[in-house]
Protein 1
Amino acid sequence: MKNRREKKIGNDIEISIIIPTYNKYPQNLLTLYSIENQQFDLSKVEVIMIDDGSTDQTRTLIEHTFPFHFKLLRRGHNIGRPAARNLGIKNANGKILIFLDAEIIVQPDFLSIHHHYHNKHSHMVVTGVMTIRKLYSILYPGFSKIQLQECRGIIQALPELKAKVDVFEKKPQKFLLLNKQHIFSEEYKRLSTITPYEKFYNRVIIANYGYELKGYRIPWQMFGTGHVSVSKDAIEQAGLFLEYPGYGWDDCEMGYRLYKNGAVFTSDERLVSYHQEHPIAKTIRDESKENYFRFQETYKEVDQMIISLTFLPEPFNLHKTNQILINYHDFCKQYPGSYKSIKQCFHGMLSEIGRLRSRNEPITNLSKQKIDKNALSNEKRQLRTLCQYQRFLECFERLENL
């Protein structure tokens, strides 16, 4: 009887929300409250939270009662975010999978928006990473000076919280600023601020490609598991996350696989969510560089490695990078069997950027490959006379001169 009941519940699930968590209590509880506050039939929703070896009070979440189906999968030791997400996928019953970070608070229409897009298109990725804002739900002694300054600036306009900050500054200790009522009333938004990333995306991506990302050929880099959805069928076709060590790029690698499989990427201006700020580990940046190199070496394709143009000392932004890729695609389509030295050299220089960056070495002397220099020089001269591929050629020569 129990097995039949579990099967029935599984068949009724439309959406599975997969949330890895590691020592994020009580932020993860506030996230669950925001899911509880959805304008969607929560009997058709399951939340699978993977407690990835936490030593805080995350285990007590199982004592709460929620209107959605809630699973807390506990690991005795830390297995890492991609492995935790894979565990969530294996336990998911929903037709739609939403990956969410444990400290992301979502608005009441969050589920309805994701569900709407997946009903329109069976092979869609809906990303919310362009509209994630900062939220100060907890004061941490480990905040950086910049975080503390930003938090103080926000709270100056909230007299009812200023006294709490004064107490915190005299005796720094973890201090919760929000409760369930603040989530349900959406008062938490008063403790939020727009991020430089959102401003950048508005200026560089949305202004040029819209929320539909039309003409944007590197949308896979927006498969950020802080806030993104995809059909379970698409994940089953693509396979599980590669379990990179440390932080970063396993999600983009999944996005790249989905994109190569024909997934359509989109976003929506209403998909604003709120990242609860916390101290940042200093090792994250180096781990991310190493994982990018792992991702690069998995495919070694220009369509993927083109993103390394954003790592240069004077980087190309994502819009310019996309325009260079479009120009390069047109060039390769028009001349599939010609200009072999230029194509080989460009591929090699992009690859070298990733290698140098992973080792924290200066990004310079990229064109040291064994290529016939005379042939390369002749091809560049011929390419200039075409006057059609200037974006690509300018990029190529800039890399040569680093």
Protein 2
Amino acid sequence: MDKKNLSILSLNMAFGGAQRVISIFLPHLVKDYNVSLVLFKELIDFEIPDGVHVEILFPENNLKNTFFTKIKETLQASKKYNMFVRENNIDISMAFLALPNIVNGIVGKKNKELRTVISERCFPSLMYKANKSSQFIANFVIPKYYNQNDALFSNSININEDLKQNFKVEIPMSVIYNPIGIDENKRILPESIEEKPILNFISVGSIYQAKNQKMIVSAMSHLKKVNYHYTQAGAGVLENDLKSYTNNLGLNEQTTFLGNVTNVKDYLLKNDCFVLSSNTEGFPNVVLEALASGLPVISTNCKTGPLELLNGNEPVEIKDGDFVKCKYGLMVNVDDDIGLAKALEYFKDNTEARQHYSEVGFERAKQNDIPNIYVQVKHLLNG
């Protein structure tokens, strides 16, 4: 039986959540489809498997990131991608993130035999809330062009509800959680967790406002600092501000800034728990990676993802300045440094709790093992 021709449309393959998901799927997709990876720009940080054809729409595109250039780029991309789809007899086109999703809808309308599948990776109402012009454009563009596709999948129930209720997306929508590779031999075993004088904890992510690492440093200031050490993996626009804040609170010796690292799991395995301090998420891959490493997790109850990962999406009520014990980890309110301090203190003083969450968290991560998730993606692509 001949393989179908599949095209995957993305802005780039630079380090990022959506790009990472694509990179995980590619080795599996190439076995079942003739795969083309079509990128707006040639930024590639992930390994591309043999057998995947890479096409760059704008090899020398130096357009500035403005409203009008985005419109121009969208129109140009739609024209170029439409030509690519026709010349290469593409059967299925899958897109990730807003701009590729829009282009996919435009091209899908022009090619009735083409099956178009899009993936939303953020919570749109929060993503476009800060900027009124962006919010106005999103309210017009998302309903018009997303609905020209055949199907949509996101990585959160809440994202789909937001698209349906606030952006009038009416095409079939499903939830397919992000995949992860499970390695039984590369994890923290619950029986290896012991009582320690210092709780070493880590956070992973770019340092900018939405990730709110300042909350972690503030939490440290409420604790006996000699008993805790915070490692930050990732850099970003607010890195210097965070370092200054850490210095002002006298926490330099208790904090390590790693910058960007590629071997994240190696650092996860060296710590006693993981902290996610985000104000908002699409789907926090780092939480899933921590669970898959057997690392106990503390997370803010932000939209979207943590509640689904740590409590099966069952709502929780968290008092200000406190935390709750969920099925697979601890949760605190967004921007509640006192609650986070109490959660860190709880893990330091309760070895059995860390052992418990190491065990159940790993079992939760296994639900997202690549084979389980890939079956769902393949089923959706084939319609």
Protein 3
Amino acid sequence: MIEAIGLFAWLAGVGGAPVPATDPLTQPIETSRSAEWLAPVKPEKIFGKTYAVGFGGLSVALIDTGKGLVLVDGALPQAAPAILANVRKLGFDPKDIKYILSTEPHFDHAGGLAALARDTGATVIASERGAEGLRSGRHAADDPQLGYGGNWPAVANVRTLKDGEVLRLGKTAITAVATPGHTMGSMSWTWQACEGKRCKSVVFAASLNPVSAEGYRFTAKAGAPFLKGFEASYRKMNALPCDILIAAHPDNVGDGRYSEKPDACRAYADRSRKALAKRLAEERAGAR
């Protein structure tokens, strides 16, 4: 684990120029896991023109469409300079980023979106429910994690896509896949990455962890839509073509930044299903 002071110095330095301490869009959000989440990792090619530009504990993907770049997720606010530095290290110009796709309206994945959009001119895209959270910079009123409190830099302009809609840019078609449960606005994204005639289906999966703030109960009436959401998401993850799985938190796919195991998406859904079943059993037994 990296000491927070050293981490934030690294984040400022790799961006090419220090970020002003007064920059409201990159003020650090400090948690017990921030240093772990933002552990620096070298950017790398995953397959074809899909790249990893994120961190040890938070995934950020980059897609080169041939007519512009697409970024997936934005990590914490203080991570924005490091993300752009990683894009440059791969030989790309951040100003060529046309879209930034959001998986969920939580600070660990959406905190950096406002700064990234400002610094690149890119359009942020999310689900309708996700966009509400991004515009407010706060948890939704029904979010299981609402009790944690806190907020992140709001994103003024957000374009929305519905489940199954396709975003096209250059040679790439990216499909929005609604995967509610962790939040009701969670959205996963899938596309084809190719090397010559060999293509692979890439899935960038939103979190499916059944976690909440203290006192929340999925077995209560308010939890019913989330349980239905999880079940719908499991069915979708099981059915998706999935040669490469990138999870919003890399540790949810096992070792490494992504998984190329044949059953990666099914295993991802199954881990969540088992965790949710355990959580519900504990609630019903009065253990929570």
Protein 4
Amino acid sequence: MTVSDTQFIAAWRTVLAGCNLKAGEQVTLLTSTDTNPQSLRCATVAASELGGIITTVELPPMNGEVSLSRDKLAYVGATALRGNKAAMAALKSSDLIIDLMLLLFSPEQGEILESGSRMLLAVEPPEVLLRMIPTEDDRRRVLAATDRLKRARTMTATSRAGTDFTCALGDYPILTEYGLADLPGRWDHWPSGFLATWSNEGSASGRIVIDRGDIILPFKSYVQDAVELVFRDGYLREINGGFDAEFLREYMESFDDPEVYALSHIGWGLQPRAKWTAMGLYDREATIGMDARAFYGNFLFSTGPNTEAGGTRDTPCHMDIPLRNCSVYLDGEPMVIDGKVIPPDQRAD
């Protein structure tokens, strides 16, 4: 449902204040030809009202000739910043970057963040952003979960559908998403509300069952028949099942890259305002599916690149697969049981 500019500017003002935007700071809006015009318009007004000094950088679209989808996360890594010294200079000299294009998984993003710029990604439709304005409670819960994940050395996931999966942890950093780029060098994503890490290389093993009703992204489809994924030595080795399994298998094969089968990030959702059902109410090209990635109590795992964590696996195929009704354990301690968040400090108010 359409939202008014008045509502949306107020939302942007709240979020940018939460990102610690101060008067006199350099704010760069990173855009492309398909940037949502209302997001650009209202973010510009809100940042100006808070005293930001505004620059807009518009880059041409990329990857349309190689991607099988118009989804921005269907082909990752290569962006129009590659070799663009002028745009990189502007972004690295910014205090806050509002990414309305989607720079995720690119080496340029890492370079920009290392310069100390903070970056907020926001490419979902305005009404989705408005529904999931980040709160202090979101931040509290994600950081509480992060403190526990930092100490973990193993993650195990099980489900009544047949998931029985384990991996070792500790070699890679933790991705925390609570929707606010509030510290120097911090990247975050509005809307969000989850955390994840990357397994130690070669350690992921066991079965993950994508059950009926679970979601595969970027397909933005609800699975109709169960798909069994078999992991050995850190890689997806078997995809078993009916049509959904065949579709997933052939899509991944189309990249002709063995690294698309590596386990990428793994974690769980902590956003109660994200809804499992929301994706089914949108046209596939209208959203990148953040409701699915963040909904409360999901088990979210992915395959493909690990450059976001400082790794070298730079592959364009990134699958995000959030599952319902799973149990997630850290060193045997339950974080989620049958889709319900267990630790009191991670529960929503």
